[in-house]
Structures are given as C-alpha cells and as structure tokens.
Design goal:
Layout: H1 27-39, H2 52-62, H3 74-97, H4 115-124
Helix pairs in contact: 1-2, 2-3
Length: 127
Amino acid sequence: MVKKRATDEKKHAGSTAQEVERCHWSSADESCLLNYVTTHKAKGGDGLNFDKTFWTQATIDVVHTTTSGAMKTAEACHQKWARMRATFHVVDCVANFSGISWSSELGANITPESESVWTDLIKVCTY
C-alpha cells in the first residue's frame, strides 16, 4: 500500500480533492542517487550545490530502480539529497568529533548507561 499525504492533495475545479501518490525511497533508490551525485559531483562545485538541470538528470538514473511509489521528480531527488546530506553531517559529527563511539554495525549504540551523555550532546548539537 502506498502512503499518501494530505498536504500533497491537488484540487480540481468542480471535483473533490484527490490524493497524489508519494515517492518511496528504497535502499536501491538511495544508492542510485548517491552514486549519481558522486559520479557528477564536479557539477556542484565545492559546496555540492546543484542546479535544477542536475536533479532532472538524476531522475533519469533513479527511475530505473524505482519499484514502488510515485516516480521521482527533480524536486524529490533534491529534497532527498538534502535530507541524506543533513543526516550524514550529524552522523559524521558524532562519529568523528564528539568523542562518542560509533560503529557501522551498532550505530550510536545508545544504552541506558550512556543516555545522559546523549542528552547532553543533544543540548549542544547545532544540527
């Protein structure tokens, strides 16, 4: 079943609101998008800020891995990249600069014993 969001509804004159299918990002979709960005990163410059034509081209690659949900649009790819990049920055900060352990297998491995350390980190985290 495809999830739908009320904010994605489109209204047509003389008819009731119709729901619009949402994108679903599988691991394969995410990997494809990351591979596209990595392969074409020079187009984004030092800040990896890409223009709309870049994201339009990215949709051509991602369409081949989409198995459910709406087809990916340039805007959907751009928004997904922004969310993935923000998540990466948080994980990178925790893994490399906070002094808190991180592993690919366990992630942050938050336990009841370490919860206070995480509570303190959240208070000063800028992301």
